[in-house]
Amino acid sequence: MIKLITESTEYLQSKGFEKPEIGIILGTGLGQLINEIEILAEASYNHIPNFPTATVEFHKGKLIYGILEGKKVVVMQGRFHVYEGYSLQDVTFPVRIMEKLGITTLLVSNASGAINLDYKKGELMLIDDHINLQGGSPLAFKGVSELGERFTDMSAPYDAEINSKFESIAKAHNITLHKGVYASVVGPQLETRAEYRMLKIMGSDAVGMSTVPEIIVANHLNLKVAAVSVLTDECDPENLKPVDISEIIAMAGKAEPNMITLFKELIKTL
Fold it and tell me: Is 3.40.50.1580 the CATH number for 2-269?
């Protein structure tokens, strides 16, 4: 793993990726933040040694380096999922590369379904805690202790100071920002009515198919982490209708300007 990380990092450094401070992972339908960045370098995933390749049509496949609000950032335009056939180590490999390049903070976005029916589609949720239902750990491999503490503490995986800043920014800009628990499942199938009931009983406020593996690895690497979900649908088991993926993408796009405001205003303060 160390050899693979070194090869990927050296390739990106040769392409001009110089000591970014902040890493950003853009979730489903949330690619427009790229337009706010002064791009200095970029690399397609399929050109980066040892990188997985995005296979989902609405996920681009580029790592972008540039300046956003005066800070050097490296941005994943498109992420990887277990449901694409990747291992948890593959899914989280880019986080290890971003850390090796120099980031100390990781900001994550995703699209998710609202389990808490007080939350409505088109609104945002700040992730305060999570439930890992992906059936494994990205830290469960031989040699992980060479990269960080094997028994990584997860008592507070999301940075309280950054979350507090996000809440202040949302209030100042009249953006509805709930705070809750995100459950991460494998997918790619959507949940059944019984599964939505189970997730509610477990204490989930939203459900998605990403994010948690990256958060675990970021904590393993002692990065400051925060994550925001765009709620793209409402998961009411008593009134469940078939999900239209194009509607989910459209809803993510509708909420995206608020997400961009949150991320840009936060980065100013980091």
Answer: yes
Please report, in tens digits, the pLDDT of each residue of the chain (270 residues total): 899 999 999 999 999 999 999 999 998 767 889 999 999 999 999 999 999 876 555 556 899 999 999 999 999 998 999 999 999 999 999 999 999 999 999 999 999 999 999 999 999 999 999 999 999 999 999 999 999 999 999 999 999 999 999 999 999 999 999 999 999 999 999 999 999 999 999 999 999 999 999 999 999 999 999 999 999 999 999 999 888 888 888 888 888 899 999 999 999 999
The amino acid present at 154, given as its one-letter code, is M
Angle at 81 between CA 78 and CA 84, to 5 degrees: 105
d(CA 115, CA 130): 13
Q: State if pTM tops 0.90.
A: yes
* CA atoms of 238 and 114, how far apart (whole Å): 14
**Cα gap 251→245, rounded to integer Å:** 10
Contact 140, 87 (CB under 8 A): no
